Amino acid sequence: MDPMNVTTDSQFELDDQFMPSLTSIKSSITPQPTIIAGQTAQLPTIIAEHLTNTADQTTINVQFGTSGERIMHDQPIINNEQTPLPTRRNRRPGPYNISPYLTNFGSSAGSSSSQPPIFELKHPFIFDLISGNYDIPLWDAFRSWVRDGLLTKHDKKNHDQDHYKKHLAHFPAAINLGVLLINNKNWFYNLYFEGQLLNNTHIDVIFYYLRKKDKYEIGSSYKYTTVDCVFSSKISSIWEKYLDLDNDIGCADEEHVIGEYIRGYRMHAAIPWHMVDHVFVPVHVKNKFHWVLAVISLNDKRINVYDSYRAAGHDAAIKTEIVKLSQLIPLKLRVNDYYKNKGIDVSQAQEENEFFDIVFIDNVPQQTHGTL
Asked: GO MF annotations for this entry (predicted)?
């Protein structure tokens, strides 16, 4: 009979091919001794061999219950070989979470004894030409650079002419001075040599570095700030519109710009006025072709004027320009919450709207008549 084509009439009927195995098991059974309830007994070896499930490698134990019945349980075969634990993965932060200042993460990145690099602290305003504590090698290098390539008779040229040999004044890449890009060496020539005209770009760059020096200097307590040349022109524009009562053109735009200066929003490295004591204002007197420095002393309500050319008729022309500041600045301070931010009681409106005094400072180094 083909064992592969065995058919049965019932699912509980065993085929004849299994009978020899059952006969062998039956002949092996021997009476078991009395087992105390709760103890465990192993079946004979031949039975265990037949009842072993080779698919899941489990053996069958027989336990006896309280009434003596046999209870079979599957028990896994214990493997003597210990499965090794997987190596723990050293997680590293993703690219979005990596600090640009760190290069090593964990023990896998290198020796744990390596020390982080130490960088020397640098500051842009350790040396300056105002206090006298300046870097002599740096100054000598600049002096050699500005003189390199000069024409033999460069001093005979006008201020707007080229003072250098052909193609030596132009820079292949512009120099960024914070508020201005310079691509021509003649700009530095006018700044370095005496008797040259200084335009508003020179003044703006100088005043930019002055306010930046006070803001970022080591141990700075914010004593002063500066404005640019646009500030004075906006003040003059507002003044002229106030005087022309028949003019219907408003000055809201100019007043908004002045408010941005006072609040510290207008320029790079600016400081709000309520945090400083003085404001440096460059003033250009057009009819005299002359620059003066006006220092607004906010605490003293005074404007100090520094003029390098003092004369009777000259002082009157300068004062005409400074009066615009002395009368408009108190008004603009009030409408832009200067006193509120300063923590000053402004209940006395008459006092806060008083004009600032004008004082010409003496003993300022003077230029000779006819020089710039």
From this structure: peptidase activity
Question: H helices within 17-135, ranges in order?
Answer: 19-28, 45-51
Q: Which domain holds residue 151?
A: 123-197
The DSSP output letter for 150 is B
Helices (H), the chain: 19-28, 45-51, 136-147, 186-192, 200-216, 229-243, 252-263, 312-335, 338-342, 349-352
Residue 212 burial (CB < 10 Å; 0-12/13-18/19+)? buried
Asked if 308 contacts 367 with a C-beta cutoff of 8 angstroms, the reply is yes
pTM score: 0.65
The one-character DSSP state at 288 is: G
Please report where in the chains the tokens 């691509």 appear, as a residue: 183
Cβ neighbours around 164 below 10 Å, total: 20
pLDDT recorded at residue 300: 93
Task: Give SS3 for 305.
Answer: strand
Q: Are residues 219 and 359 in the same domain?
A: yes
Is residue 228 assigned to a domain?
Answer: yes
Give per-residue pLDDT as tens, 85-127.
Answer: 778 777 776 666 656 665 565 555 555 556 677 766 566 666 6
Answer yes or no: do 289 and 217 share one domain: yes
Count other Cβ atoms within 10 Å, centred on residue 207.
22
Give CA–CA dist 17/270, Å, rounded.
103
